[in-house]
Amino acid sequence: MGDVLAGNHAVWEFDSDSVLIRFVRGIRTPRLPRLFHALGTRRIPLEAVSEVTVTAGRRDAVVLRVRPRPGADPLIEAAAGQLKEVCDPYRLVLPGDRAPRAAAFADALRSRLGPERDEPAERFLVDVPKPPVRLKAYDARVDFDGSAITFHWSRTGATGTKWKAGDQRYPLAALTGVEWHSPGGPGGHLRLLLRDTTGDPRPDHDLAAAVFGVGYGAVHESLPFAAALLAAVRDRAALASVPRARSGDDRLRHLSELHSAGLLTDAEYVALRDRFAAESL
């Protein structure tokens, strides 16, 4: 397609197989939401899209919206419906006189969607920040280096339970998921879901949780961090579920990609490489 639509907070560029979203300040909206500023640029493959709509907005505006397939975007999966409408990265607000162009773009996009549009995605299709990433919460600094998550407790913010327990380190293999509770509501926090243990339901006492607060864990910082964690957990789970029928070359190639991305330590990479090689004999 190669066409471009400039809206209030973003410029969408349509290609034959994707939509490139560049978040920029507009003339009517000089202030860019901080989440959009943090996201910068995102490429959305059309295979990640479920639906495209054009609706009337406020003050004679028109809204072009793309709805991602469930399971396609780790950012949306981590948000779990908690994002405010103004922070929806899949929503483009346009002046009303651009309604015909928005409708034409929507029709062109729909014509390129495949039959899988109505099904949940089997894997994440939209990229998020790669490790190493860091988050400053109220009671901890949380680091993710690609293989493990470490909580460094704050002397002034952490409860006695956390401070006495000392800093905590969780290998990626110990996680089954991540929960993000928006700092915009009461009880905002980030919690790791662990494979073999259940933490204290109170996030300020859970050694696998970091509490948000005023000035700590803002959406533009904590949500991309949670999405990066979730993507890494799912990638690792996908590796574990690789069927043995898959060719040895494919499995080793995928293993090498995960190692290069920092999702496997050197020791883990060597152990799995040797195991796959033995199974292919």
Automatic annotation (TrEMBL):
Outline the extent of the DUF4429 domain: 12-109, 143-229
Q: Which domain of life is it from?
A: Bacteria
Could you tell me which InterPro entries the record lists for this protein?
DUF4429
Pfam families found in the cross-reference section: DUF4429
The protein here is known as: DUF4429 domain-containing protein
Tell me which species this is from.
Streptomyces sp. NBC_00049
